[in-house]
Amino acid sequence: MNALLSVSDKTGLLELAQALHAMGVKLLSTGGTAKLLLDNGVPVTEVAQMTGFPEMLDGRVKTLHPRVHGGLLARRDVPEHMAALKEHAIDTIDLLVVNLYPFEATVAKPGCTLEDAIENIDIGGPAMVRSAAKNWKDVAVLTDAAQYAGVLAELKANGQVSAKTKFALSVAAFNRIAQYDAAISNYLSCVQDDGTQAVFPAQQNANFIKLQDLRYGENPHQLAAFYRDLYPAPGSLVTARQLQGKELSYNNIADADAAWECVKSFEPARDGAACVIVKHANPCGVAVGADALDAYSKAFKTDPTSAFGGIIALNCTLDEGAALQISKQFVEVLMAPGYSPEALAVFKSKVNVRILQIDLPAGGVARNALDTKRVGSGLLVQTADNHELTLADLKVVTVKQPTPAQLQDLLFAWKVAKYVKSNAIVFCAGGMTMGVGAGQMSRLDSARIASIKAQHAGLSLADTAVASDAFFPFRDGLDVVVDAGASCIIQPGGSMRDEEVIAAANERGVAMVFSGVRHFRH
């Protein structure tokens, strides 16, 4: 058996080569890889010696040779192929170990130049990988150090790599080439005439890895699957570990993501314990509290009816007290960064409840850089709405000034409104939502619905803070929320009738601040 080893990342390579040599495999290699092996006493033949042609052009040309690709591509079951190899004195290559120049890591570095990027585009490596992967029945191709142990185990046990494994390695190899080429295309498609990088490439090449097939999509007649980014953001839903419960459905995942993204915007060290309850992609209750039980109890009070069968997310460890209270309700999915053993024991008998553990990202919230939305035969791409509002950003536009407590409620209401479908109106007080109006064609209807929700829950909207995700185009929207009990309002501002709305706020004796930013969520 002959093996060709040529890697950029040499992790585990020496151990692999030593094991192959011990099994009598003849080793071929290039440049730095060959030097590493020879320096460590592993016999190896350099590719330049095998081809009879030296590496040239600063290493740009070294494996692009018929002796390499003939050895990889020849079908052992085709006599004519084997005769051609014999005629030209070409040996077969039965095992290829290649990983590629670190293009992705290079372009991710601050200050990477176009020249740096170009020099880290691998040519010979992908060409060999494609040749070996195409001829998978006869050649095993390894493109990741994580594959080394499994292949060595098969060689030691059976003297060969199974057809099943070789096919899986081939698929992995083509996937790696696709990822690599996509990264190059995305980078180069962003290069502008002045050498700067555009935000969006001229061609969008995305790579996602399937996590699982789902039972069905939004409705039972639709097929569905769940994929993750090639490089997922830390603390995102795709990193969740399911501790118990039924398989997640398409709708479970969509709602769980909405809940998790909202709750992780509340940092435990800064905001305390937080709980978000989501139903049909909208928060129906959000609160912060002294602990998990306090936060959940307040969030649940917002809309107990909608919370039935909802998705619950917490930003803190779930303890027994909170678990006992939550277990009294029908819950589809429960998410938290941790669970006490006693809390898990509470849910042990509720086998259908899906319990997910997701680590909060270290050093603050990590989110997707881009958002996408599929349209007919197209794709909308935008930078993600990761804007965080602070007290310093607020502009008080009314005679009446908000109190410190009102300012905190306004920021809380604004944070929640960001995760409510437009048009969004959110009433809050004391670190909890009091009424949520979502997804209406009219902002007035959203305000009215939020008020009705509060009435049904037995909550008073007197002296509440209200957030509107977009400006009030007329004073009527402000009048509706003030009539319901609001004493302070946060909205983006920017309407042609801002002065009319400000005058209405002054007339009604309420405080109003402008955020200067809109949070539409379609």
Structure write-up:
- There is one protein chain.
- This protein is an alpha/beta fold.
- The chain folds into three domains: 2-188, 3-Layer(aba) Sandwich (Rossmann fold); 222-357, Cytidine Deaminase, domain 2 (3-Layer(aba) Sandwich), CATH 3.40.140.20; 391-514, Cytidine Deaminase, domain 2 (3-Layer(aba) Sandwich).
- Helices cover 38% and strands 20% of the residues.
- The protein is built from 20 helices and 21 strands.
- Strands 8-13-12-11-9-10 form a six-stranded mixed beta sheet, with helices on both faces. A six-stranded mixed beta sheet has the order 16-21-20-19-17-18, sandwiched between helices. A five-stranded parallel beta sheet has the order 3-2-1-4-5, with helices on both faces.
- Strand 17 and strand 18 (432-437) form a beta hairpin.
- Helix 13 packs parallel to helix 15 and helix 19 (475-484) packs parallel to helix 20.
- The longest helix is centred in the middle third of the chain and has 26 residues, at 163-188.
- The chain starts with a strand and ends in an 8-residue tail after the last strand.
- The model has no long low-confidence stretch (mean pLDDT 94).
Features:
522 residues, alpha/beta, Rossmann fold, Cytidine Deaminase, domain 2, 6-stranded mixed beta sheet, 20 helices, 38% helix, elongated
What's this, in brief?
The chain has 522 residues and is an alpha/beta fold. The protein is built from 20 helices and 21 strands.
